[in-house]
Design goal:
This protein is an alpha+beta fold and 340 residues long. The protein folds into 2 domains: 23-43 and 194-339, Roll (2,3-Dihydroxybiphenyl 1,2-Dioxygenase, domain 1), CATH 3.10.180; 52-181, 2,3-Dihydroxybiphenyl 1,2-Dioxygenase, domain 1 (Roll), CATH 3.10.180.10. 18% of the residues lie in helices and 29% in strands. It has helices spanning 62-73, 118-126, 142-150, 214-225, 278-286, 303-312, and strands at 52-58, 81-86, 92-102, 105-112, 129-136, 154-158, 165-168, 177-181, 204-210, 233-235, 254-262, 265-273, 290-296, 316-319, 328-330, 338-339. The strands form 2 sheets. Strands 2-3-4-1-5-8-7-6 form an 8-stranded mixed sheet. It has an 8-stranded mixed sheet with strand order 10-11-12-9-13-16-15-14. Strand 14 and strand 15 (328-330) form a beta hairpin. The longest helix is centred in the first third of the chain and has 12 residues, at 62-73. It starts with 51 loop residues before the first strand and ends with a strand. Residues 1-39 have low confidence and may be disordered.
Length: 340
């Protein structure tokens, strides 16, 4: 496996040009010359017009996790229900589930009950964290699943003629399972219409992916979703990344990054150059490229107050300097997610 000192991870916004060499070939801390990203023509797929609907987050005990999300979203504690998944071999597995509504998205919190199946297997292998990215497809999904299998996906959930399936791409630079299922939400309370807590009523802006190889990840997402390519950029455009006071990260790090748009929600790709950084740390914990964060607006709360309240509620301020226009609050150890 290539060293994490030379390769890494997830980002923030599409900014500044990257490197002519692959990042893992660069000297950590060196400022790289502008990159020439290979042009990939857009080729529509069966998912090109499909919206991103939710993230599925797997945990060992749902009770403290639902309380934690209720606290930071300023909503009643979500109801814990039971849900059954079909497996390709005809068996069924059971899990506990609760939902956190957002205006244009939702979070699906899962605890395996059956000691087998994709939810349980994910928890055993990766621990607390994001298992799947939901993609809305109405009607019979067999053709979509077949296309995804032809692109290296592995079917781990669902049945022929069903309306839901898990197709695992964690072993690729997609970095997650895709859950193909209905566009309509499961039964849950509506999202707040005015700001509650830190995140209630705040729409998702992007899903952030920590990458080992940003070029391969871009190519894989374009292959699966038929997105339009945008150039890889360097952030910051020059100099080093802005981190909070007292940080433990490399002082000569920057990232290669960009965002692709999928039906109104962006997917952000971030690969850090030099180590340690928040993204290399995530990759080490999650054993490779994987979904790290969601980004939302601050609403009416001033940035300093947002950071103060977030840290009081257990979030670790891991990214974004004192004067930056963004910040990460890291709940990955307790809630399985970083929120930007």
């Amino acid at each position: 496996m290539r060293s994490l000192k030379h390769v890494c991870v997830v980002a923030l916004f599409a900014l500044a040009l990257g490197s002519g060499q692959p990042a893992h070939m660069q000297t950590p801390g060196s400022v790289a010359p502008p990159a020439q990203t290979t042009s990939i023509p857009q080729k529509p797929t069966l998912l090109t017009k499909s919206p991103l609907t939710h993230l599925g987050i797997v945990c060992a005990d749902l009770r403290p996790v639902v309380k934690g999300y209720a606290d930071i979203f300023g909503i009643p504690v979500p109801e814990i229900q039971k849900i059954t998944f079909d497996l390709p071999d005809g068996k069924k597995v059971e899990a506990k589930v609760a939902y956190v509504p957002m205006p244009n998205f939702y979070l699906e919190l899962l605890e395996p009950v059956t000691k087998s199946g994709p939810i349980y297997d994910h928890l055993k292998r990766f621990g607390l964290g994001v298992h799947h990215l939901g993609v809305g497809v109405d009607g019979n999904i067999d053709a979509v699943v077949a296309e995804l299998v032809s692109k290296d996906g592995k079917v781990t959930g669902g049945k022929k003629g069903g309306t839901q399936a898990f197709v695992d791409f964690r072993h690729t630079e997609i970095g997650a399972t895709l859950e193909i299922g209905p566009t309509a939400r499961p039964t849950m309370p509506p999202a707040p219409t005015t700001q509650t807590g830190l995140f209630g009523a705040q729409a998702i802006r992007h899903v952030g992916l920590a990458n080992l190889d940003i070029e391969k990840s871009l190519q894989k997402y374009i292959e699966v979703f038929g997105m339009s390519l945008v150039p890889v950029r360097r952030f910051p455009p020059e100099g080093w990344f802005p981190y909070p006071p007292g940080h433990k990260w490399s002082q000569t790090s920057y990232v290669l990054t960009n965002q692709l748009t999928q039906q109104g929600i962006n997917i952000e790709f971030i690969m850090s150059v030099a180590s340690p950084t928040p993204w290399t740390h995530h990759i080490e914990k999650q054993k490779g490229t994987s979904i790290m964060h969601i980004a939302v607006g601050m609403g009416k709360i001033p940035r300093d107050e947002w950071l103060r309240i977030g840290q009081q509620k257990g979030g670790k301020w891991t990214n974004g300097g004192a004067d930056s226009f963004f910040a990460y609050l890291d709940w990955s150890d307790t809630l399985g997610l970083v929120i930007e």
